[in-house]
Design goal:
Layout lengths: L2 H11 L3 H8 L7 H10 L3 H9 L3 H4 L3 H10 L5 H12 L3 H12 L6 H14 L2 H14 L4 H10 L2 H24 L19 H73 L11 H20 L3 H15 L7 H15 L2 H14 L6 H10 L1
Helix pairs in contact: 1-2, 1-3, 2-3, 3-4, 4-6, 7-8, 7-9, 8-9, 9-10, 11-12, 13-14, 14-15, 15-16, 16-17, 17-18
Keywords: Coiled coil, Membrane, TPR repeat, Transmembrane, Transmembrane helix
InterPro entries: TPR-like_helical_dom_sf, TPR_rpt
Pfam families: TPR_6 (PF13174)
């Protein structure tokens, strides 16, 4: 189905018979099957029969039912009667026109032209009920019938502009269709003559060189790929022991954390039972140092987690456990206790503790760091 067929059939389905006729009139005898469909929709049986007889043989089978139905409906030739009725209306002989129409309607009650004539007659007589009746009937058969357009033009002047706009739209549509189907009649192609021959041997040689280089490059890429696969396999083998060591280290850290938690619980129970007893007086020095070391490690873990209050608590207990003894991690405990206060934002306490640390441990590896933080406070 081309675009014109679609437009015409859409107009027929919308009961816009006159518009469909006007559109097809721009292509005389080019689309007889569409003209047949339009006249069939208008109940113009004589035209249907005539158009069918002129159809190409390949289309007659498709429209045979149209023809047979029209032949059964076609009993009289209404053209003369219609012309006479129009003349009587022009003479304002409404009674004579009505008589002629009555004779036609007996055989063709749905004939569009007859309905249009009745509509015009009702308008001339100013019979409101008849006007409304035939107007609705004509609208159902052909919404774009000239009788309706003429009535609108006579009742309101703006209808002229509507008809003019419709004509412009139809003209634009036709122009678009013609442009769509119009093709250049001739396309010239300039073919080079045999005189303009080109020596392509150097080009062929160059192409062969490029192909040879591509082959060499492909071989090298294959070798590189093999080497990478071997190295990757070796790397995977070397990573396996490392992964095992990491898992072992994780397990050891987990065990250490568990042990530190148990030690912390034991210290807490001891503190609850004897809160007034100072750790300085614990008789077994080795036990005190071991507990202090565990507290130092546990406090450092809290420091890494940025839980500074818990870290300070462990460092304070560890300092009490250490007392006056000189152990290798003593300066660590003092330094990180001051650092926790610094990161907490307690600047006055941090300043005091850093100054104390520098006095107690001037040779510590943390001394320079302590001075740095003091300058920032």
């Amino acid at each position: 189905m081309n675009i014109l067929e679609k437009i015409v059939r859409d107009l027929i389905s919308e009961k816009r018979i006159t518009e469909a006729r006007n559109l097809l009139s721009l292509f005389p005898e080019e689309f007889p099957h569409l003209e047949l469909e339009v006249e069939y929709a208008a109940r113009n049986w004589k035209a249907v029969k005539r158009l069918y007889e002129n159809l190409p043989d390949e289309l007659k089978e498709k429209y045979r039912e149209y023809y047979e139905y029209a032949a059964n409906q076609l009993n009289i030739d209404y053209s003369k009667e219609t012309e006479e009725a129009l003349k009587e209306i022009e003479r304002k002989n409404f009674q004579g026109a009505a008589s002629i129409l009555e004779s036609i309607v007996k055989d063709y009650p749905e004939l569009v032209e007859v309905v249009a004539l009745r509509y015009k007659l009702a308008l001339q007589r100013n019979e409101k009920r008849a006007i409304e009746k035939y107007r609705k009937l004509l609208l159902s058969l052909d919404r774009t019938h000239p009788a309706l357009i003429e009535t609108r033009a006579s009742s309101r002047r703006i209808g002229v502009f509507e008809v003019f706009t419709l004509s412009l739209l139809v003209a634009l549509l036709v122009t678009t269709i013609l442009a769509f189907y119009t093709l250049p009649s001739r396309i010239e192609v300039n073919v080079p003559s045999s005189e303009n021959t080109i020596n392509i041997k150097p080009v062929e040689q160059r192409v062969e060189d490029v192909l040879a280089n591509i082959v060499i490059l492909t071989e090298n890429l294959g070798k590189i790929n093999d080497s990478l696969e071997k190295n990757f396999s070796a790397l995977q083998e070397n990573m396996s022991p490392i992964s095992e060591n990491i898992e072992s280290l994780k397990e050891a850290l987990t065990n250490l954390e568990s042990r530190l938690s148990k030690i912390e619980s034991a210290i807490a129970r001891t503190s609850n039972k004897e809160p007034s007893v100072s750790v300085v007086y614990v008789p077994a020095r080795e036990d005190r140092i071991e507990r202090a070391k565990s507290l130092w490690f546990l406090g450092y873990m809290f420091y890494l987690r940025r839980d500074y209050d818990e870290a300070i608590n462990r460092f304070e207990i560890a300092i009490k456990e250490i007392g006056e003894d000189n152990v290798y991690f003593k300066d660590d405990v003092y330094y990180y206790r001051a650092l926790c206060y610094y990161y907490k934002g307690d600047t006055s306490t941090a300043r005091s503790l850093f100054e104390e640390f520098i006095k107690l441990f001037p040779d510590s590896e943390y001394a320079d760091d302590a001075e740095y933080f003091l300058k920032r406070l």
